[in-house]
Design goal:
Structural class: alpha+beta
Strand content: 15-25%
CATH topology of the largest domain: Multidrug-efflux Transporter 1 Regulator Bmrr, Chain A
Largest sheet: 9 strands, antiparallel
Number of helices: 10
Number of strands: 11
CATH superfamily of the largest domain: Regulatory factor, effector binding domain
Distance between the termini: 59 Å
CATH class of the largest domain: Alpha Beta
């Protein structure tokens, strides 16, 4: 008889694998048959399984991901028209994209782009493009921050990781972190995949907290692995997944901070340092690499590198 927890973990691993594929191919064709095949489920049952686990239908999930990514393009890619952006994310025309965008954010893509183009220069007002989801704060150049760090620019190679994924608020993530990382460490040690000197402990943030609702925020808690270990891990009947963090240019902020200062450190990197850097955030996931042992004691400072994907300012 199949163990229930083992079965649940296997389902989670397969759905997370589909999420990773969607992230990597959001601008391409995402066919139900292909996604069902990646998950290893019949296409007739896959969409129901997906909705039962993610609490969104496959169509809702894919459209939300596309619209959230489009916010970045509208704000930073002024070399692209709204029609270009619509086609880039697989919408058949700009009108359909505009309707979907307005249904989600209550304003048109054109209004959103024009508002931010003006207010990024003139003010730091809050723009309530969707009060139920988030408020995006525009930070003036030179804003003061109580936390600061040393920032360098690095070009990294692809990084392969084993991960467990958390869905929900960052507050809930704190209690999930130590327990889940302990389980991940134990399983990788059993496979002789953990090396104290070379293995890195990381967290990958797949969603923008200023845009994505708390309940839909995805965080992957990761341990680096050699590429040769991927097939071995995927044969496990567990919720451990594998993925590749893409190569490219990153702004790397090194911080020595208390547990409650992570948000301020990201604010410094994105709101204080970035606007004066001559760089733009690149459309890829940000992540943290922990340089000191994870510790739940709020009185102890932790050493962490924060990686923000960047590209030259057009």
């Amino acid at each position: 008889m199949y163990d229930r927890s083992q079965s649940k973990n296997e389902y989670l691993r397969r759905i997370h694998k589909v999420q990773d594929y969607i992230d990597a191919n959001l601008c391409g064709s995402l066919m139900l048959e292909d996604l069902a095949d990646i998950a290893g489920f019949s296409k007739y049952h896959f969409h129901r399984i997906f909705k039962g686990i993610i609490k969104e239908s496959l169509l809702q999930y894919v459209n939300r991901q596309k619209l959230e990514k489009s916010l970045y393009f509208l704000l930073y890619r002024h070399d692209l028209t709204i029609t270009d952006i619509a086609y880039n994310f697989g919408f058949s025309d700009a009108a359909i994209f505009s309707r979907a965008f307005k249904n989600c954010y209550q304003v048109s893509p054109n209004y959103y782009r024009n508002y931010f183009s003006k207010n990024c220069k003139d003010s730091e007002e809050l723009f309530p493009y969707n009060k139920d989801i988030a408020r995006a704060k525009l930070v003036k150049w030179g804003s003061s921050h109580s936390v600061s760090g040393n920032v360098t620019i690095e070009t990294i190679d692809e990084i392969y990781v084993a991960y467990v994924r958390h869905l929900g608020t960052y507050e809930d993530l704190e209690s999930f972190f130590l327990t889940s990382m302990k389980e991940l460490f134990e399983q990788l040690r059993e496979l002789n995949l953990y090396n104290h000197e070379s293995t890195k402990v990381m967290a990958v943030y797949h969603d923008n907290p200023e845009i994505t609702e708390d309940k839909n925020r995805r965080t992957s808690l990761c341990i680096t692995i050699p590429t040769s270990a991927i097939k071995t891990i995927e044969t496990l009947k567990s919720n451990i997944g594998t993925m590749m963090i893409p190569s490219g240019k990153y702004a790397v902020g090194r911080f020595e901070i208390y547990q409650n200062e992570y948000g301020e450190a990201w604010d410094y990197l994105c709101g204080g340092w970035l606007p004066q850097s001559g760089l733009l955030p690149r459309d890829a996931s940000a992540f943290e690499v922990y340089l000191s042992e994870p510790d739940s004691d709020p009185q102890k400072k932790q050493l962490v590198d924060m990686y923000l994907p960047v590209e030259p300012l057009a």
